[in-house]
Amino acid sequence: MEIKNEAILVMDFGGQYTQLIARRVRECNVYCEIKPYNITAEEIAERGYRGIIFTGGPNSAYDDKGPKCDPKLFELGIPVLGICYGAQLMAVTLGGKVIGIEDNREYGKTEIEVNPSSLMFHSAKAKNICWMSHTDRIEEVPHGFKITAISKDCPVAAMEDIKRNFFAVQFHPEVQHTVEGQLYLRNFLYNACGCTADWRMDSFVNDTIEYLREKIGDKKVLCALSGGVDSSVAALLVHKAVGKQLTCIFVDHGLLRKDEGDQVESVFKEQFDMNLIRVNAQERFLTKLAGVSEPERKRKIIGEEFIRVFEEESKKLGKIEYLCQGTIYPDVVESGVGQSAVIKSHHNVGGLPEDVGFEGIIEPLRDLFKDEVRKAGIELGIPEFLVFRQPFPGPGLAIRIMGDITEEKLEILKDADAIMREEFANNGLDREVGQYFAVMTGIKSVGVMGDGRTYDNTIAMRAVTTSDFMTADWARIPYDVLEKISNRIINEVKNVNRVVYDITSKPPATIEWE
Ligand code: XMP
């Protein structure tokens, strides 16, 4: 989708912060794209990038086996910023020298002294804290470069060649611990690359609606709406563009949280007047799932049944040319060291096969990170409870009920989970904690209620803090909040006599129990 004027290229050399660099650039209101390190100079010139950023990476720049860039890109007249490995690669490629350091390797917070009259450190404090993580260092700068920052153990913490617009920093400006990192990046983007910060959510939303209107013309579009933020924002963009030419199918498998199905229906049908078909398929799914305990089997059954229901419904609608999907940027990004994107295939239960007979796929969020999708959602007027919703797995409550799934267990879990969510919101924890939910553990235990013995269900509470859902820590929820939730669940939900709190991080546990 060619809708932005200024783009920065982030060349990925396998660094762990590649996506973070891209997000930081976007936070400066500059559009950027991540591409593998082996992109050619011709491709770069063709796309018309305003600047290039080399990411870090685990290799040594002097090692032949490490990833290299096309050296011709230095002849394109495009400003380049190298970070960590990227800085060293720039040094080696342009004739400088990089060596391994046996002693005094730098990890973590480090004080640097910068030259504030350099372009990169314009308006910066002369001394500041940055984040280092390297076992090699630049020993000699290439011809034309000046050293612009030093640290105790790093004689070239930054260098620049102002004539050719080449910049390099040994530290990581993108991480939070580099106190003025965002300023350094802005200096590169605005002052070296001449970017004007034209990447804004209001213009993205308007441009995208315009683009979609033109692309779709008088054709029809179908969308599988789950109520999650991605599919909601994608559908609404298409709706704003072509109104009732869009039909959304919302497959309610009955495994959603309490009242969720009704909320989705009311927002999209009543607030936005969208063409929404809600398929109440709870019975169908529960029949297929009857007696099934194995988690992966549950996922498979739900995924397959979802596609079947969707196809049946869409056939009733006659010819539809386009399928709209809520794919976002992290799903499509290619990694730098030769592997393809890690797509959470088994996680994408709502994912539809691309060959279901459409002329084309429309993915209006392909260029956005999650936080940008949320901003677009707000811009479009989607209620905050939907936009800032915690992630919810496609197989829904099915993977939060250990063992087989029955209607009765579902009801217990929905009620317990609703109490937990309500108390998190009452105590301002709902935006702070990455994900939180109740689990039907499948364990029965003995209790005493009134004067009698009980033998009933155990509910577990799970709450984690996480930035990427790849690793997570259990959330330190105040005892009085835990106590309140526990008391309320025992008092208000029938057939529960014990509540426990899960204090396992990920790894070794996963966030979901199944
Ligand atoms: P785990 O349990 O793997 O979860 O630590 C990481 C994140 O992924 C979500 N998750 C899923 N999402 N289908 C989904 O759409 C799934 O089958 C699935 N399993 C886990 C989980 O909620 C968490 O956000």
Report on the architecture of this protein:
The protein is an alpha/beta fold and 514 residues long. It has 3 domains: 8-192, Class I glutamine amidotransferase (GATase) domain (Rossmann fold), CATH 3.40.50; 201-387, HUPs (Rossmann fold, 3-Layer(aba) Sandwich), CATH 3.40.50.620; 406-501, 2-Layer Sandwich (GMP Synthetase, Chain A, domain 3). Helices cover 31% and strands 24% of the residues. The chain contains 14 helices and 20 strands. It has helices at residues 18-27, 41-47, 85-93, 181-192, 201-216, 229-242, 260-271, 282-289, 295-315, 329-332, 370-379, 384-387, 407-426, 479-492; strands spanning 7-12, 31-36, 51-54, 80-83, 97-100, 106-114, 127-134, 136-140, 146-151, 154-161, 166-169, 221-224, 246-252, 275-280, 322-324, 360-362, 435-449, 452-465, 473-474, 496-501. α5 (201-216) packs across α6 (229-242), α5 (201-216) crosses α11 (370-379) and α6 crosses α11 (370-379). The site of xanthosine-5'-monophosphate has 14 residues, from loops.
